[in-house]
# Entry
Amino acid sequence: MQRRDFIKTAGVAALAAGGLSGCKEQECAEPGALPVGKPTQRYRWRMVTTWPKGFPGLGTAAERLAELVAEMSGGRLTIEVLGAGELVPAFEVFDAVARGTAQMGHGSAYYWRSKTETGQFFSTVPFGLTAQEMTSWILHGGGMELWRELYQPFGIVPMIAGNTGVQMGGWFNKEIRQIEDLQGLKMRIPGLGGEVLRRAGGVPVNLPGAELFTSLQTGVIDAAEWVGPYNDLAFGIYRAAKYYYYPGFHEPGTVVEALINRAALEALPADLQSIVLNSCKVVNQELLSEYTARNPLALETLLNEHQVELRRYPDAVLQHLRRLSAEVVADLGAKDPLSGRIYQSYQEFMAHARKWSALSELAYLNARDRIQ
Ligand code: CA
# Structure
């Protein structure tokens, strides 16, 4: 609070200085100078989230976003962050932002696929783009324009506001040795990955994170995926399942999105609009960095302190799932013309990204970690 008060005071002082010199705002502005003395109206927003309040990584990223906006705006825009269920249930975040109950939301597009199934392209695609590639497609590959077009009828402006990186495959109480082992398996797995599981003979269940552990422990579901070691440890999922599978073929770089009510955004002065949108981008990178730093340590804790059994999906299982994934994604792309354009953009970007990653990330990681 003290820091915010300081920033506010500094802003008022700068405004006063400009006023005393008698020049107009535009005349006072020097090239490259930070904007000061803009309209003093204050705005108070609410952000609804799909995460438990303060949940490590996901929930704290939403708090961080609000903190950044308050700091950078000198307190002119403050955002109250609400956890899942505080104002609306986890999966009603999209609706709440669309109707203006809250000005912002924080979640991931596959949680509201009943509203826009095609939005799942902007969440994550099984065997699709990694976090680095996904951010690049959205910011520099035409993804953002398509995403905005998709959300336009809902009065929502989307923005990247976090990424989990490659997730883990999930938690099971039996080993997955062949594709038949997924038959009849009731698993918490959202989005397109859930549809892949369904086509493999399993039963996907879409549950908010907060309901995951109890459902698994009481046998309502047989298996579950959540995020990765850092977040899975926080929920204590190892107490309900023994085998921890990788890789998370179904979520190779999941985008955590900010939903912004268009009317609320457009009611802000230009500098506050920029602060909101760019704070989202800052948090997008910060959250990915947090996962990259915390996941390895959390995995060690799971393996060494909780005796979790780490398993890799067999190649034959991955091959089968990969074929099903291609069908699922193509079907979504065939839904309507806009879905078709998004599918085409995504596929074209990935074709290029694969060629480059083969020579860069993949080749380098192989050189670093495989060649002895
Ligand atoms: Ca997940």
